[in-house]
Amino acid sequence: MENLNNPDGTRRQILTGMFSDRESTERAYNTLNDRGYSKDEINLIMSDETRKKHYSDHDDHSELGTKAAETAGTGSAIGGTIGAIVGVIAALGTSLVIPGLGLIIAGPLAAGLAGAGAGGITGGLIGALVGSGIPEDRAKLYESGINDGHVVLGVHPRNNEDAEYFEQEWKSNKGENIYR
Question: Of 155, 178, 52, 50, whose CA–CA distance to 108 is shortest?
Fold first, then answer.
């Protein structure tokens, strides 16, 4: 399970934002990647419907699509198989399909939920988000956005400089409901 605490025992902040289209999601992901954050540090949540509609282009030649092709099939599934995942999901590494909720979750949040098994998601999306350190009111806002086709990204910034950089980049990149 991901360590959510700082060395002094205080809880690490999580920076989250919501993106309404593939281009802004990819740019936001790239800002994280460009600062040295790995796929295992970046959380991503979207509906399976959004993934099928916007992230399953087999002729995808974007940077994320290329990474996805290289890592296709590395995801895991609860309650079913997912085969080759293209787009952002595969690029992010550990990904999880939750059939009962129709969600795709990638990153450390997926690893934690997979470790908890299906019982770890009984609280639904809001429970998963709150468990990852997101306040309940924000989790409800994100759940609504995800249901409307948006994608949520989250990361635990290593320092305030990174947090401020990501916040500004995401805001200038059509990010919505950005919090830390």
Answer: 155
Q: Decide the pairing of beta strands 76-77 and 95-98.
A: parallel
Q: What is the mean pLDDT of residues 125-147?
A: 85
Amino acid at 11: R
Question: CB–CB of 86/72 below 8 Å?
Answer: yes
Q: What is the pLDDT of residues 147-175, one digit of tens each?
A: 999 999 999 999 999 999 999 999 999 99
Pure H helices in 13-62:
22-34, 48-54
Tell me the backbone φ, ψ of residue 30, rounded to 5 degrees: -65, -35
Report how far residue 123's alpha carbon sits from residue 130's, in angstroms, rounded to the nearest whole number.
Answer: 9
The answer to whether residue 77 scores a pLDDT higher than 70 is no
* pLDDT above 70 as % of the chain: 60
Q: What is the pLDDT of residue 129?
A: 80
Alpha-carbon distance 27 to 94, whole Å? 20
Q: Is 72 exposed, middle or buried (0-12, 13-18, 19+ CB in 10 A)?
A: middle
Distance between alpha carbon 111 and the CA centroid of its chain, in Å? Answer: 12
